[in-house]
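Predict structure. Input: DUF2071 domain-containing protein, 254 residues.
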Amino acid sequence: MSLTPAVPEPVTADPPRSTPSPLLTQSWLDMAFLHWAADPADVAPLLPAGTVPDTLDGVTYVGLVAFRMHRIGWFRLPGIPYLGTFPETNVRLYSVDAHGRRGVVFRSLDASRLIPVIVARTAFRLPYVWSRMAIRHSGDTITYTGTRRWPGPRGAHSRITIRTGERIEEPTELEHFLTARWGMHNTFFGRPMYLPNTHPRWPLHRADLIECDEDLVAAAGLPEPAGPPVSVLYSPGVPVRFGRPARPNGIPAP
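Output follows.
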């Protein structure tokens, strides 16, 4: 039986809810957002049960997002400086569930620290992979590189270089749609899960794509991107708080 979602929550630049008792804290820094338009029919089979593609004007999107994870911490404890800080690049899709909650679905998350990869794969059933990665700054350009180690496919890679530009004072509807995401959909031991997050409003900047050599999107089971991305954005980053996961009926798990 196909899912009939409720009316999706509005796309809001600020979080629609608070996170007074966070499960996890972290910061996402030096964010590069690359997005390609996609047919919802191509994306739907790759989403968890209980969700459908989230669309804007009938179109959904595939995101390739590179950044520096900074100081992951549990509850209100201080973030971990070494094991909790590393480059990451993820392939993500956009989803909405039967309660109207908009979110992201991660098809892959490459990270350069093995222990966080193992923890995320085991505790949250997230498709993290261990990769050799680096982020290099040169003036107003940033280069993100990664080559996959385990579990594979070994050799899957990405090399992204952007030139950062001026601050966006009034992001467009599409720019909010692609970045203002207040939760993650996933499947946990065969059951749908929604993990909410909150953070300050994104400080977004224009960015020019200088180089993009990658096969992570195809390795994630999606059609290889045709042509340049329709949106390239940069953000210096935000601190993030994750709340407790919610059951399918919307009630937080104990």
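The two ends are 29 Å apart (CA to CA).
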